[in-house]
Amino acid sequence: MDHKERIRGIKALPCWAGEVSLSPLEGGITNLNFLAEDAEGRFAVRVGSDIPEHHVMRFNELSAMHAAYAAGVAPRVKYAEPSVTVLDFVDSHTLTPEDVTAPEMLPRIVELVKRCHQEVPKHLRGPALIFWVFHVIRDYGATLAERGSAYADLIDELVSYGNALEAAAGPFDVVFGHNDLLAGNILDDGKRLWLIDYDYAGFNSPLFDLGGLASNNNLSEKQEQACLEQYFEAPVTGDLLHRYSAMKCASLLRETMWSMVSELTSEIDFNYAAYTAENLDAFRHSYADFKNI
Description:
Layout: H1 3-11, E1 21-25, E2 32-38, E3 41-47, H2 58-70, E4 77-81, E5 84-88, E6 93-94, H3 97-100, H4 106-123, H5 133-146, H6 155-169, E7 175-177, E8 186-188, E9 193-195, E10 202-204, H7 206-217, H8 221-232, H9 238-265, H10 272-291
Antiparallel strand pairs: 1-2, 2-3, 3-5, 4-5, 6-8, 7-10, 8-9
Protein name: Choline kinase
GO molecular function: ethanolamine kinase activity
Keywords: Kinase, Transferase
């Protein structure tokens, strides 16, 4: 579908009150996003189909968004049909990694993440997925091999790292994770924080979100320690730190291999090769630190 056809399709949705105007929203690297305005207000429009190679299933995303709204951590879904979701637009500031690391902001984010973990599953309806990062890593390895990736020489090495991290990260608690804690998925409207984009939502270890929050936003060791203490309401033990560090590495490894697969499959205009290189370097440094714990 070309751009004009996509715009016509969005404008023809039955949810609008009168005429609707559309403008692109920047920042998506999995979906196309638009700002829509009609007689009732402003709305965010997310356009994207299932992406099986990334374990993104839109039925799961939609049920997670409904539950997250009921839990008070995400905007309301106004309308949805296959490949298109319309949500209330939050007039807000999209966080950057620098915002995340601000001393007054980080505790608020940890509270938001914990609320997601604990409250969203109380409102979840219908089938739900598990997001098991170690399975995702193995599956990415198989996809890269099948599709003749330029990173073929790295696949066995990276998958073996993932298997070793799985053994190190247990035993596992299970919560309902967001599983994509990039700064750009957190909004601040001046009064409260919102958590958006539930493409990868699913049951998971809480350490994956905490590790992803740290690795995606360059938290210092002191900040990581503070996050763990706040989340678990207890001093950080050596065992917890070891398991957390393994999950943090797994988060970086998954992000690296996600980008490798996206280089082969995505049609979105984004420099995936540079993103792969950046995350692979961060993973190698993190894994070296993990081995020294």
